[in-house]
Amino acid sequence: xxxxxxxxxxxxxxxxxxxxxxxSPSGVWVQPEDGVGRVGVSDFLQQRSGDVAFVDxxxxxxxxxxxxxxxxxxxxxxxxxxxxxxxGVIAVVxxxxxxxxxxxxxxxxxxGWLALVELSDxxxxxxxxxxxxxxxxxxxxxxxEEMGRT
Length: 150
Fold this sequence. Notes:
This protein is α+β, with helices and mostly antiparallel strands. The chain has five helices and eleven strands; from the N terminus they run E-E-E-E-E-H-E-E-E-E-E-H-H-E-H-H. The chain has a domain at 26-125: CATH 2.40.50.100. It has helices at 43-49, 96-99, 103-106, 122-126, 132-146, and strands at 5-10, 13-18, 22-23, 28-33, 36-41, 52-57, 63-64, 69-75, 79-83, 88-93, 115-119. It is globular, with a radius of gyration of 15 Å.
């Protein structure tokens, strides 16, 4: 498992980024494999949002264009509408989240994934996403700005 993540520490916060995922600037990740993308929220996004109380993912069969809302998350702090980083069709929804929404906080890159999407235009859309190193730098800068330490 060593080497699977890169991380940055800002003040007392540690933010992990999974290496083999691609990220939207809003903090939604996709991990492509054999034409299907596993989609979820980044560690940074879940930490900023607070404890997840409810997750709602659009149903299986929903056709998505990149940028379409595919899920929403309710926390004690905020209600988030999540935009899909990719185009395709929702093939599987993580039903474990209905009874255990806290999985998004506890394991955002593992058991807390949101959906599997059959990718329709991965090669083109990949170029619009951030790799792990780019995303890590973006969140480091964002976290420093939020703390007033630019």
